[in-house]
Design a protein that fits this description.
about 375 residues, alpha/beta, Aspartate Aminotransferase, domain 2, 2 domains, seven-stranded mixed β-sheet, five-stranded mixed β-sheet, 11 helices, about 15% strand, binds pyridoxal-5'-phosphate
């Protein structure tokens, strides 16, 4: 079933990675629980030992590959979490003496990764996501890491422009595509060497599993990442992989509703006097909108904004009824949190990251406006 190249995202999503129909077999085969497989004679693939390969992963990897690069031959590797996928690319590609460029405003675990890389003698340079500052630190770098839109600030990097400059400088480019999902942007089409994501978020969308993936075109790069997975063993369980594949069928339905809800919430927030710094790449007035529109097909379900202070933000979160006060994002149930409570991001005390779920738009906007009224003053 690799005939979905010309089809729409919804059609592709419901069929992604499914095997050819076999009489009396299910549409999506169930999870295969196996530490090892029957293997008489020469130990050749595809299925030998459960840390190297599993048929449930194969189906999911095929599905993600079809979404990341429709109609193209790519390799996808699934991991136990987004961080396992990120670490696999960085630690399989970088050697002592190499230089890497990381975002200064990216995911909150990146500073921990930075310290680990530096302890191996890898030079880490940083640049903010927006504004092309990466261009001035690329010389001699082996890898440029982009996270766009960035979490939690929602800045957008000009991927095509940065890829052209990085490749000219001899650097590989990896894009953390967690926030957008492949329905929002396709990093490989924009020229990146690796598309990496935490599928814990919008990709699977139910807040009930952790998962990550790496997709790339180049077989040699993929082999390095595969070997890293084998060495570290950060593999997803078959149940998680199967739940993820099942969840992909509704990806377009979920993401479209979440994007529409995020836009409606961002617009409503923009009307409020106590709210400042509303960021959503889909807002025409957003500083990232022009760049986002050139490379994104959907703007994602996350909005960020700032209330006057910590107490105001806490009252607001407390007053919400349809929005869970929880970390993470991208789920079918709206969630929000005061990012400052973690201490890792450079954000004001009243800064809120809001993840729009799949509720009815009017209900969600009404809940946000009521919570703002109740938490005022
Ligand atoms: C959540 C997140 C990660 C880490 O993913 P896990 O699945 O929690 O390991 C990495 N990058 C971004 C942008 C994220 O939002």
């Amino acid at each position: 079933m690799n005939s979905t190249t010309a089809m729409g995202d919804g059609t592709r999503a419901v069929r992604a990675g499914l095997p050819e129909p076999v009489k009396y077999e299910p549409t999506l085969p169930g999870p295969v629980f196996a530490a090892h497989f029957h293997l008489p004679g020469e130990p050749t693939g595809p299925y030998t030992y459960g840390r190297d390969s599993n048929p449930t992963w194969t189906g999911l990897e095929r599905a993600i590959g079809e979404l990341e690069a429709p109609g193209e031959e790519v390799e996808t590797l699934v991991f136990a979490s987004g961080m396992a996928a990120i670490s696999a690319v960085l630690f399989s590609q970088l050697r002592t003496g190499d230089a890497v460029v990381l975002p200064s405003d990216g995911y909150q675990a990146l500073p921990l990764v930075r310290a680990q890389l530096e302890s191996y003698g890898i030079e880490v340079r940083t640049a903010p996501t927006g504004g092309d500052a990466q261009l001035s630190v690329l010389a001699g770098a082996r890898l440029l890491w982009i996270e766009t839109p960035s979490n939690p600030g929602l800045d957008v990097a000009d991927v095509r422009r940065l890829v052209a400059a990085a490749h000219a400088a001899g650097a590989l480019v990896a894009v953390d595509n967690t926030l957008a999902t492949p329905l929002g942007q396709r990093p490989l089409e924009l020229g990146a060497d690796f598309s990496v994501a935490s599928d814990t978020k919008g990709m699977t969308g139910h807040g009930d599993l952790l998962l990550g993936h790496v997709t790339c075109r180049d077989a040699e790069l993929a082999a390095g990442v595969r070997q890293w997975r084998k060495i570290v063993g950060a593999i997803p369980g078959p149940m998680e992989a199967w739940l993820a594949h099942r969840s992909l069928a509704t990806l377009q339905l979920r993401i479209d509703r979440q994007c529409a809800n995020a836009l409606a919430v961002a617009r409503a927030l923009g009307e409020r006097r106590e709210v400042s710094g509303v960021r959503y790449p889909g807002l025409a007035s957003d500083p990232s909108h022009t760049v986002a529109t050139r490379q994104m097909r959907r703007y994602g379900g996350v909005v960020s904004f700032t209330l006057p202070d910590r107490e105001h933000a806490e009252r607001f979160l407390d007053a919400l009824r349809l929005v869970d006060d929880a970390t993470s994002f991208g789920g079918v149930r709206s969630s929000a949190e005061r990012r400052g409570r973690w201490g890792g991001d450079a954000v004001p005390e009243g800064f809120i990251r809001f993840s729009a779920g799949a509720e009815d738009t009017d209900d969600l906007v009404a809940d946000v406006l009521r919570a703002l009224d109740e938490s005022a003053g």
